[in-house]
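Form 7-S
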Amino acid sequence: MGFLFEEMEPQERFQEPPYGTKRITVSFSGGQTSGKMCHQIIKQFSDTHEIVITFANTGQEAEETLEFVHNCEKEFGWNVVWLEAVTHHGERKGCTHKIVDYETASRKGEPFEEAIKKYGLPNPKFIFCTRELKVNAMQSYLKSIGWNWGTYTTCIGIRSDEMDRMNAKRKEYKFWYPLVNSNWDRKAVDDWWDKQPFKLGIPNYLGNCVWCYKKTFKKLKRIAKERPEVFDFPKRMEKLYKNTGAGEERQIFRKHTTTVQLLANANNENEGDEIAGSCDDGCEVFGQYWDESELKKGI
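Output:
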């Protein structure tokens, strides 16, 4: 885009929200990047704008992620709306929402499993996780409080060092990336959290969705060695629902790799390491994998 963000210092204050709306919805992923974004948005604009912070739990977030969101609520006084997707079986209708909290949030993949029952196993070819479990749940909640599409600005936590992930239609859909505009990269975000009384207790390579199929095999094998228990859910899903979805047998991971095969190859340093991909590619809400047709359905 022609900007040399790496030569600029991060700005302490965000630029004014674009688009002229007085409503801001903040998509809080439960990560440190969106956490920093939430902190500044509330600090800077809570007196002039209506702000709604949502966190959509799939039931397969790392426990440290749930603790981090809860700590943000306690330490900073945020009013985070915890959401989980509600799948409508037998209907041509996307997921809606229900409200939970830190104590009642699913931790065994319940919302995710319900979506898998309807849509089949997710994998790099069949991507619905973010759309159904996060975007549709958040859109459903906003609509329930009278925030119809187009009446608010959607604030998304993408940093200046990952600006290529911004949605091409961001102006049309009122998507705002304040960390990009203010030159906050990963180092600046990490440095800011180092000065806070707490931080997210997982390394960057794990991510909030620990077993995400978009990760490289190299990352997945490292996780399999360190936290093999996180693969219990995808292994069970492949056993129960491998034939769900368009009448074909699916596997979750790249190159038609099953969870059992992935775990068995965890000690093979070369197996599949050349496969490209990252859990950072396209998992953010309204990213390049977002299905904008949901808007036309009134979600």
